[in-house]
Amino acid sequence: MRHTSSRISQLFFLALFLVLFLMTEYRGSDRIGVAVNAFFRANPLTAASTLLAVKGWVPFLLPGVIVLVLSVLLGRFFCGWLCPLGTVLDLVTGRIRKTAPLTWLKGSVKYWLLLPLLVASLLNLNLAGLLDPIAILVRALTFFVHPLLGETVRSGWVGLYRVFGEGRDVLDPGYRFLRDYLLPFRDTLYPLAFLSALVFILIIFLERFETRNWCRNLCPLGTLLGLVARLSPFSRVPAKLCADCQACRELCPTSFDRELLQKEECILCMECQLHCPNQRVRFRLAGFQPAAGGPVMERRVLLGGLVGGLFLAKLFRFRDPQSQARLLRPPGVRSEGEFLEKCVRCGECMKVCLRSALYPALSQTGIEGLYTPVLIPRLGYCEYNCTLCGQVCPTGAIPDLPVAEKKREVIGKAVFDKNHCIPFALRKECIVCEEHCPIPQKAIRSEVVTERDFSGRPVTVKKPYVVDELCNGCGICENVCPLEGKSGIEVFAVKDRTPLREGGLESGGKGGDPYS
Amino acid sequence: MDRRSFLRVLGLSYLFHRWLLRDLAAAGGPVLAVAEGADYGRITRQAINALGGMGRFVKPGQTVVVKPNMGWDRNAEQGANTHPLVVKAVVEECLKAGAKKVKVFDRTCNDERRCYINSGIEPALRGMKNVEVKHIEDERFRKVPIANGAVLKQWELYDEALGADVFINVPVAKHHGLTRLTLGLKNVMGVMGGNRGSIHKNIDGALADINSVLKSHLVVIDATRVLTAHGPQGGDLRDVKVLNKVIAGTDIVAADAYATTLFGLKPADIAVTVAAHKRGLGEMDLRKVRIIKA
């Protein structure tokens, strides 16, 4: 274990990352002060891809731009001092026996990944999050590690109840502490949990071939920082391996497998300076100078990357209309196009969602929307007074709205299926949906109908209907419908997501009520 | 309370409160205490004291469940949940009577964390000794056979409610889309597990069934402010009417029947009340109920 400044910084940021991850959860306050979104806002890759897609300025991405500018001056310090995935790799790599580096990973593979992502962003499809290291880590934690931890502890807790019954209460304070600070509140199963875990495990597996394999040869964030690092005036001397020593070859985690320090791979861990047997190595300002080491990439890579981006952005747009009809986005998202420009697929909204209503898209959006959040009302509904997803979204893809405004945002519209809905299909009382509808004037109402039941006896039944003008599509009706399996009322996506009229809800006159 | 201790209480009250016993004997039917005032903690205590005090129901060392309605992510003012001051007063009286532990919970409709906090009940009880405000834990539901169930033959009920020495039902009086009003009888739905929405098909009979196996030893109805429309959730303050009343009694049907009149309705208008009365769970004819203005 090293005890250098860079390692201390790495551990600090990894701890910070994990604490922020755990803080991305409802804990009794309507606002979440700080969340793991801080890491995305300071992330130059997601900042760059979002700004390219939006083609405008997004104020809270300023930290990411600052990191990018700093990288022009200092090089890839982000990778060696901040990146939590890099730290995880540094922590495990010592335990992984190395074979020879994979030669096919060397060279321009990383540009083949980075360029198409950025070009697709220019063409309004923000895919950078799919391969962003921090997003990969957050998704692995959100969809796989955290639920697994939660379920394991919880099933142990339930098991204790089966054995000790009330006696379990002795341990309750301890369990409460775990539940309140460490575990996810709900046991949620996510689609894509396997893929999220697999990508993360694969990155660790790559350490078999060389240290920081992902960081050097694949990571699009590292590649982007490497590109600007070539301009850095801050450089190591001597730039080459010294003929008499060559210790750097062993000390350097990334870039001394060739004779010359690869500036775009140097993560500024300063190991070589600290451990140089002859105290020769210095990092110092040397003035702007074109980095040695030849051109950045061959022309065909550049062109190929451009074409790749075009393909990426245009070839995966097919969407199945049937699942499209149920494609519900988080509250406040009014346009699908704009959402695809901004959403970096980091998974934070799904992590924070109170009722576990949001899930990573797989079938609903086609490949182009992979990992973007969709609301599945049968599994969880959008809580009326909650604005957490907007608060933690790093890029504003889900807008951070005041509660009063968020309540009026339309997610979709509820529609009854009379073939299933109990009062219609069975001529029996129900209206559980009406009871749960959070709209103060009720977007679900009922009319009292007297008719004959199927044995001919007269019955009076309340038959529900939806007041379209008041429905915000929160999905609680579909969620609580007591029918098993398919719900008798379902929320469908709508193109026109103009918010409900103001004054219809808590305060004003009869503005929101078309039937009063 | 078993019969012996009830007799003991009766005997003791005879010695110390001859007037109380006289009242009970004179009426022959159930007694309701109704207190009115703007200090909700105080009127809650007044109503309970008028019945003979919490000591009549809670003995030292007993475990008490206080079951408010806190099913909705609404604040105290909006009238969808039992007022925190009413709940707090009931809990305090239980502790004063010597309760070993007071448990407060509800199976909420909205997110439990938000409901417990936004209702004001969890904050009001925070830091109180021997008081437990926990979320429902699914593993604690257990199947209970309902011997004379008309609609339900068995259902999953919460073991802490079943296991308590005393079960105190503290509903808020409010409008409800299906049952017109929700009061004490319906508040018991908060200890039901499983797919409780499915009982709406025949809710009157189903609630009578549940109340026949889970008896409320004391019912304290919060009518400090009531939702007159768009219940059970409300949300619009124009639907909230301030009545400043608390009703307490041991007869859940009588308590519900009386609370019904506060909405300008007759007890017979509420099918849940009628079904429970027919099941022998209590008296709905208010002429047979002694009402003490506390």
From TrEMBL, chain A:
Keywords: 4Fe-4S, Electron transport, Iron, Iron-sulfur, Membrane, Metal-binding, Transmembrane, Transmembrane helix, Transport. Residues 257-286, 333-363, 371-404, 462-491 form the 4Fe-4S ferredoxin-type domain. The chain crosses the membrane at residues 60-92, 113-138, 188-206. This is 4Fe-4S binding protein. The lineage of its organism: Bacteria, Pseudomonadati, Thermodesulfobacteriota, Desulfuromonadia, Geobacterales.
From TrEMBL, chain B:
Residues 64-260 form the DUF362 domain. This is DUF362 domain-containing protein.
